[in-house]
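Researcher: Let's run the pair from yesterday's discussion. Sequence first, then tokens, for each.
Model: Starting with the first of the pair.
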Amino acid sequence: MLRGSGGDISTSLGIHPSLIRFSMFAFGLHKITALAPVLLGAAAVAGMPASASSQQVPLPQYTVAQADAGEEIFQQVCASCHEPDLTGGDQGPPLSDAYFASSWGGYPVAEFLSFVRDEMPLTGPGSLSDDAYVEVISYILSFNGIPAGGAPLAMGASGVITIVAKD
């Protein structure tokens, strides 16, 4: 997202990438940028810097039980803005496919967890338990094709969000 030949533009401007993503959502720019990967010919591994795509990066770990619990929480708390199928709407950006891959692909899962905990839901940021946020993120990762593992996801977890773009 917002990468030029010199690297991540948010870093060169001294702006945290999460703030750019949130600002784009707040001003409705997520609708325009959702088409950017299609219009620009998305890479096979969307959102990852070219140098990282040739390296093996660890995927985030979460369990099937966390993803299952996260789906229930997502439908109760998040779906009103992000839609039940994670396709996004007028109130929230998509949390799936090319938009999610271009927004969060290549970023540490810990950064995504922190952003969601600190900013969501819009009506009460930080209002869920840490376990609930972890479960929702597990569901989003699962929905986007990142396979479950044996280790549970936790705040501060390692792993990089790596999503293969769907045609």
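Model: Moving on to the second of the pair.
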Amino acid sequence: MDPELDQITQAILIASDPSQTSLHAQALDYLSSIQQNAQMTWRWALALFVEPSTEGSDRKYPPQARFFALRVLEDFLDNRLVELSARGGLLNFLTIDRFDSLEQETFKIVQESLVKYIQSEYIYGPAEASSPCTSYSLWS
């Protein structure tokens, strides 16, 4: 595991465990700083969300970490959109696509990672069959 990703994952697990009272506040502060600095941490978030396990049949990181990663990625994309719209006013804000605000290299990294994820998960893979959400049925 990448040391930064391991640290983020540990903080998420501590923050989601009520019995970890001594480290809970510290974990929340750390995660808050990751989310507030999405411009710098979005690559970690992308890796947390898309990296497959070594077996390739599941995701490498737990669902809590992957959900947090989506929140960081959303903040990153929203912040880029707000920055760009601030330069161009309301009309610019209304006509900008979320991905138009990304530099070409950043867009390419995000696009390639998400396409690989979709292919591995939904075209060639189990469609997140091991996800906690799949154990619930709407029809039972």
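Researcher: Give me one sentence on the second I can quote.
Model: The longest helix spans residues 63-95.
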